[in-house]
Amino acid sequence: MVRDRRERFISLAEARTDKALNAIRLIGNLSNRSNYEYEEAEVNKIVRALESEVRAVKARFADASAGRERTFRLKG
C-alpha cells in the first residue's frame, strides 16, 4: 500500500513537472518580438504570477493543509 502511494507520487510528479516545465518554455517563446508585441508591465505580471504559484507550491509541500487554486488572467 505505501509503495503504491510512493510509486503513484513519483509517476504523477514526473509527468506533471514535465508538463509544467514545457508550459513555462512555451511562455518563454512569447518573448520573440518578431511574432508578438507586449509591454514590460505585462511580462512582469506573468513572471510575478509564475513566481507566486511556485511559492504557493512550496508552501503546500511545507504544510500539506495549505493550498489554493487560482486562474491567471493578464487583464483584470
Describe the structure concisely for a colleague.
The chain is 67% helix and 0% strand. It has 76 residues and is mainly alpha-helical. The model has no long low-confidence stretch (mean pLDDT 91).
Structure write-up:
The protein is mainly alpha-helical and 76 residues long. It folds into 2 domains: 1-37; 38-76. Helix content is 67%, strand content 0%. It is built from 2 helices and no strands. The chain has helices at 2-29, 40-62. The radius of gyration is 16 Å and the shape is elongated. It starts with a helix and ends in a 14-residue tail after the last helix.
One letter per element, helices H and strands E, the order comes to HH
Radius of gyration: 16 Å
**Low-pLDDT segments, ≥5 res:** none
Q: Please count the helical segments.
A: 2
Beta-strand proportion: under 5%
Largest sheet: none
Number of strands: 0
Q: Report the helical percentage.
A: 55-70%
Average pLDDT score: 91
- End-to-end C-alpha gap: 46 Å
Overall tally of domains: 2
Shape: elongated
Structural class: mainly alpha
List keywords for this structure.
single chain, 76 residues, mainly alpha, elongated
Q: Could you give the topology of this structure?
A:
Layout lengths: L1 H28 L10 H23 L14
